[in-house]
Amino acid sequence: MKNIALIGFMGTGKSTVGAELARRLCLRFVETDAVIEEASNKSISRIFAEEGEKAFRRLERSAIQAVTLEDDQVISCGGGATVDPRNLRLLRMTCRVVLLKADPRVLYERISRGSSRPLALNLKAPEDIARLIDDRRDAYAQYDLCVDTGICSVEEAVEVIAEWVCSQNADLENLRLELDTPLERYSVVVGSGILSQLGSEMRACGLEGKSMLFSNGTVDCLYGDRARQSLSEAGFHCSTFLMADGEEYKTLDTAVQAYHACNELSLDRRSTVVALGGGVVGDVAGFIAGTYMRGMNLVQVPTTLLAMVDSSVGGKTAVNMPFGKNMVGVFHQPRLVVADLDTLSTLTLRDYRAGMAELLKHGLILNPALLDFLMSRREILMSYTQSRDMVWAVAHSCAVKADIVEADETEQGLREVLNAGHTVAHAVELAAGYGRLRHGEAVALGIIAETDAANTMGIASDRCLEVVRACFIPLVEGLSLPDLDASSVCQAMLSDKKKRGDRVFFSVVEEVGTVRRGVEIDRDVLREAVARTLAGL
Ligand code: NAD
Ligand code: GLY
Fold first, then answer.
1. Residues 374 and 467 in one domain
2. Quick check: is 447 in a domain?
3. Are residues 118 and 206 in the same domain?
4. Burial class (CB in 10 A: 0-12, 13-18, 19+), 274
5. Which residue from 396, 327, 411 is spatially nearest to 363, judged by alpha carbons?
6. Is residue 370 a contact partner of residue 65, using CB atoms and an 8 Å limit?
7. Cys-Cys link to 370, which of 139, 270, 363, 381 (CB 3.0-4.6 A)?
8. What pTM, to 2 d.p., does this model score?
């Protein structure tokens, strides 16, 4: 059963109601505070006293990342847990969220009777509580059900929530998250068998008019008809444009052919380009949607693991140029992303593992609990089997990416963390020749080489390098690149679009969950690290 998360101010009864609700529904009961205490081996008061609230909030974030990877739980969250919108996103994505509330005077009564919570010490009157609740209004504004425990008993609150839960649709498999950027607000829907809902999802987000399914022959043969049927059932007039299959066709020439098709089909700015395929299709379709008539609607329907966990979310679109990868492009956010994991069943093992590289990268740099989750499931790491675990892993990956994209949509700073491994990766792709390596394979090589170099420079710990090797080497083992040498890779790096003047800056992993941006790596150190990485294949 989908989790139930209890949120709300301290004293609203999250622990008492939560424990009883879990018993009643035969679910596990988890308190985020208890998870934090166990992980840090310290009481909450001691964490506040010795490390301060900021450190506590970091631990709380990790605890929420970890517990939301499981289901069948009632999760009682700390009163301030949802102040961080990233936590709220994870809870909304994986749980039914129930807000418990009560009048500040009732809460004051309860809290002054003996709360040991550190923040309770500053609450000396009901007005202090009312003020703090008001400060946190955004944190308590999004929920599926609200129960006032000031006017009902614990038993009554449990009864109301249990009845409501039982009346809900058991839509466990589909996970949905919302992205809100200055350019666009959109949903990412992750699930199994949801391609048939494409048209209705597009209608639900207000799209109408003409649509152009943008794909390649490989994917169109497999999933084109299902997508077209869904679109026509929802009343969309749909035409199709197929580009040639392969990274080597991610070019301006392909884009020009597509512009002609848009013109012949009389598409206009209300029309929608539906990108059905992997990252190549998504990047080119996005580029067309972002530039034709200065912008049409875009819907991403990723069909590779890489596109599901990375390229379909965040609005980066581009084509390659002879002098560098992704050198011409625009930021253009989709209006909707629909990721149907059933499509992964036809993906080659090689492409699946390439996508796993980006998924592991998101865990490595932003969600250590996700990394552990993946590494402890070797079977989903190396080949696709339909499972709830993969649905949740993909959704968590989209969620960490969403956090970064919302904070820095056009990569003015923070978003650079997502480029970990990518400077070497893009150079490897250019030096090897586009289309020879999967992008995810190049990313795996890039992360290994960049972390190796960062380790030599004393930035990445030995432990971090060990974890990186354990995660990424299995994804590229057996690749044969005898003609690729470290010097040509380093030479290709000089055309990276992230360079400033002739200086190249890297985002390198220091520890699992921590990335340092703007690192300049000594050329000899980097060449040796790339050489070691290539020699290790
Ligand atoms: P891809 O798009 O080339 O797909 C790999 C292969 O799988 C192709 O032959 C494709 O036709 C086939 N395929 C796709 N879905 C399939 C399915 N369900 N069943 C069978 N075959 C299927 O490669 P990719 O790894 O998905 O994407 C790589 C591209 O993504 C690169 O160009 C990279 O630069 C880009 N990228 C973009 C971003 C971004 O933020 N925009 C992020 C990461 C990567
Ligand atoms: N794939 C890197 C980014 O989207 O920023």
1. no
2. yes
3. no
4. buried
5. 396
6. yes
7. 363
8. 0.94
What's the CA-to-centroid distance between 418 and ligand 2, angstroms? 5
The residue among 134, 166, 198 that closes a domain is: 166
Closest CA to 276 of 320, 315, 206, 218: 218
Q: Ligand 1, residue 440: give the atom nearest the CA.
A: 25
Question: What pLDDT shows up at residue 501?
Answer: 77
Q: How far is the CA of 303 from the centre of ligand 1 (A)?
A: 8
CA of 302 to the centre of ligand 1 (A): 8
Ligand 1 close to Cβ of residue 430 (< 6 A):
no
β-strand 28-31 against 95-101: which pairing, if any?
unpaired
305 and 325 housed in the same domain? yes
How many residues are present in the chain?
537
Complete DSSP assignment for 229-287: HHHHHTT-EEEEEEEPSSGGG-SHHHHHHHHHHHHHTT--TT-EEEEEESHHHHHHHHH
418 CB near ligand 2 (under 6 Å): yes
Helix axes 368-375, 462-476, angle to 10 degrees: 50
Based on the structure, what is the number of domains in the chain?
A: 3
Q: Is the model more confident about 170 or about 194?
A: 194
Out of 109, 133, 166, a domain closes at 166
Mutate to test the pocket of ligand 1, among 248, 283, 337, 383 (most ligand atoms within 8 A of CB): 283
CA-nearest residue, atom 3 of ligand 2: 418
Are 51 and 179 found together in one domain? no
331 contact partners, CB below 8 Å, separation of at least 6: 183, 290, 315, 316, 317, 409, 410
Residue 398 is assigned to a structural domain of this protein: no
CB of 340 shorter than 6 A to ligand 1: no
Ligand 1 centroid from CA 290, angstroms: 19
Query: Does residue 362 line the site of ligand 1, with CB under 6 A?
Result: no
Distance 410 CA to ligand 2 centre (A): 10
Residue in 48, 108, 103, 49 with CA at minimum distance from that of residue 78: 48
Helix (H, G, I), strand (E, B) or coil at 493: helix
- Atom 5 (ligand 2) nearest CA: 418
pLDDT tens, 197-233? 999 999 999 999 999 999 999 999 999 999 999 999 9
Active site residues: 294, 316, 358, 401, 411, 415, 419, 422, 426, 439
| Phi/psi at 54 (5° precision) | -60, -45
DSSP 77: P
Residue nearest to atom 43 of ligand 1 (CA): 311
Do residues 56 and 162 share a domain? Answer: yes
Q: For residues 148 and 293, state if they share a domain.
A: no
Does residue 316 have its Cβ closer than 6 Å to ligand 2? yes
pLDDT, tens only, 282-322: 999 999 999 999 999 999 999 999 999 999 999 999 999 99
| Residue span of the structural domain in which 337 resides | 175-390
Would the CB of 314 count as within 6 Å of ligand 1?
yes
